[in-house]
Structures are given as structure tokens and as C-alpha cells.
Amino acid sequence: MARALDIAKRNPNAAPPAVSDGARGSEIEKAAELTVVSGAAPGRPSLVGLTRGQLKERLTAVGVAERELKMRVAQLWHWIYVRGAADFGQMTNVGKGLRATLAGAFALERPQVVSEQVSRDGTRKWLIRMPATGPLDKGAEIECVYIPEVDRGTLCVSSQVGCTLTCSFCHTGTQRLVRNLTCAEIVAQLIVARDRIGDWPGATPPEGAFVPTDGGRFVSNIVFMGMGEPLYNVEDVIAAIGVLSDNEGLGLSRRRITVSTSGVVPQMERLGAEANTMLAISLHAVRDELRDVLVPINRKYPIAALLDACRAYPGLSNARRITFEYVMLKGVNDADADARELVRLLKGIPAKINLIPFNPWPGSKYECSDWERIERFSEIVFRAGYASPVRTPRGRDILAACGQLKSETEKLRARARLMLESGIGAEGMYALGDSDA
Ligand code: SAH
Ligand code: SF4
Fold first, then answer.
1. Global pTM?
2. 181-212 pLDDT per residue, tens
3. Which of the listed residues 233, 259, 262, 265 should we mutate to test ligand 2's pocket, taking the one with most ligand atoms within 8 A of CB?
């Protein structure tokens, strides 16, 4: 535990921990079961999270004339993404007749927040229930984590329910139910977060919540580091990034959006060309034999091919570096020789390195490297010119940790509670301490 705090201290960007380490594991503040209220009648499709093109289709379907479409889409866009409207009645510049038509056909409903957990350090984790997308889909639950820091607020979003890949150190990879999230479901995670932290014009943040000073934004950064492999859902991830970064709406800078991939080489170029976001690579090993085990997609796209795709990533420069994530596994990938090889491999690629202390989960067969080992490893990396490489642990008291997100609902929640009770704290570390975006 002291180790994680030491890591936090080493990072100049990290907000100071709010409480003593010993207090964290036990003093969890979990809100009661919550249901998000909205005025929508069941069964009406929600317009929240849609792209401009999708909104246009919906408006056409209810008879809005072609010549009006652009203006109407712009109005809805503003109400949904700038004002956070949850009710068509708020849309005062839309005529009463059209408002009634819209309310009869659609909703502005958000996915349901099943539970909210608030860490003593201000990190918030939501279990969000996505409605069924069709007769074969019973709906699905995903997790989303908000990490406020002094100079930024980061939202960690999911791109899939579960993950088809089976990285041997990752809990998400053991989840049975897997489906892609739609663009709307990805965007809705930010909408839900902003609802919950009171981040709309005229809204009031909940008591005790972090409020950015000097006009900063509550959510300034988005990382696709929740559940799922974003590049196995590339179409909807790119569409969602379009909505998230639209200047007339949610307006997040693409430089403050990071997509993390285990290395789906064929989709990397497309992501760079079409979404123009920052890229993070889950590298975790410097030899193919080991990476084949830790990140099995390596058997398909080995390290050399992955690094070639990195070199070719559009828009790469010293100001736009790729983040290489490296989970510290005791006795597995944490030797001095691994650190030296890591530095050698990345030579010539504009890169940042994030060392991630391993987060244990029930049944996991790895242990986190000792702090002295992480320190030694990071020293070698540091000497090679990579600054503050250890990712800041956040939200550890609420299991808001990389690779621990697994939403198989009741069973998991019971298990998570057990973990909490038995003191297996999560070392949540979505906060990208070294990101300069
Ligand atoms: N599927 C994508 C994004 C989600 S995982 C990917 O793999 O990149 C986000 C990060 O958490 C990845 O770097 C992943 O390797 C790491 N991670 C997974 N399980 C972890 C664990 N138990 N402890 C620490 N980091 C973990
Ligand atoms: Fe999937 Fe990423 Fe976990 Fe691997 S680390 S199983 S790609 S979520």
C-alpha cells in the first residue's frame, strides 16, 4: 500500500491523496442503488449519443422537411451536447409542435446508473446499464470511471461489454458476455458522468465533489481504457470520438482523447487517419514468447509488426507521442534486462512509457512487482529519457482499477464487495500521470 502512495508522490501532476493510506481500504462511500430519472416513456429510442447523421435520419423519419434538417439537427445538437437537456420541453427555440412530435417518438433518456461509488480521493466509478439493442440482447452493464486531478479530469470509458481477447493478467478478458457498444452508448458514458458530477450549465455538483478551479473542465480528457478492445469496435469508436470532439457540442480536444489498444495492427492506421487521437499501446512484454502469453493477440501481430504500425501512426511527433503501457508483473517481465530491451525497442518512436503496477483480481495468477523493482525498472527507463513513468494509482478503495473492470453484475458485485472486505484494494490508475495533453 505504501508503495502505491510512493508512486503517487513521485508524480508531480498527481493530486495529493485525500486521506491516509490506511483509511482508504475501509472507508468506501457507496451510494445507494440509483436509478437515473428521465421523462421518457419506455420503448422510445433515445437521441442521446447519436451522430449528426443519425439525428438527421431520426428527424427525417418523423417528417421534418429536408430544408429544415440542418437547422433542426444543430438545435438538437446544442440542447443535447451543450446544455445536457433531458427533456424536450427545455428546447425553447424549437416550436411547440415539433417538440411534441419529438417527445412522442423519442426520448432523451440516458442509460441507467445502477450504482455509483465515490473514492476518498474523488474518483467515481459507475456501473451503467445499457438497454437491450434487440430481441437477442438482454442489455448489458459496463463500468466507467472518473478521475479528477488538479489540472485535469479524466473519464475512462468502455468500448465493449467484456472483451474477446484473453490477456492473462486482465479480469475483463474473463468476462463471458461480449458485445460491442454502439457509438451512442460510448458517448452516453460522458453524458452520464456529466449528469452525475453536475457538469451542465445551471447544474449543481454534488456535495463534496471536485470542482475545477480557474475555469478548467470537469472532464477534460477521455481514455478508452475501460472494458473492451476499442479497435475491435473501430467503427463506433471513431464515430463516438467524432461526437465527443465536436466543437459545437461536447468539444473535447482530440489531443486529450487516448485510445488504448492491445495491438490490433490493421486498424491502427485507420484510427489515426480518421479519429486523429492519441494512441496508447498495451505492450507489457519485450519478447514475443512472453507477449504471446500475456497479450495473446501478439501471436497474430507480433512485436515487430506492432512497432512498425506505431512508427506509421499518422500525426506522430515529439509533441504527439505514443504511450506504451507496461504492467509490472513480479518475476515475469520486470527484470533490468526487460527495461533495457524496452528502451532499445522504442528507440526512434516518439514515446512515453507508463509503468502500471499490476492490479490483482480473484483468481489472477500474477503478483505485482515489489516497489523496489518498479523503482529500479523506472530508473533505467528514466535514464533513457522518459520522465515520470509510473502511472498514478487512483480510486483504489473502490476497485476502479485497470483490468479489474468486469461487470457480470450481481456475482461480480458480490465478489468485489468481498475483495473490499478482505482488504484486497485496487490500485486504480487510469490517471495518466505523464500525459501532457
Ligand atoms: N483493451 C485495451 C484497453 C483496455 S485495458 C487494451 O488492452 O489496451 C486498459 C489498460 O489496463 C491496458 O494497458 C491493460 O493492459 C491494462 N490492464 C489490464 N489488466 C490489468 C491489471 N490487472 N492490472 C494492471 N493493468 C491492467
Ligand atoms: Fe481485452 Fe485489453 Fe483486457 Fe486484453 S487487456 S483482455 S485487450 S481489455
1. 0.85
2. 999 999 999 999 999 999 999 888 887 777 77
3. 262
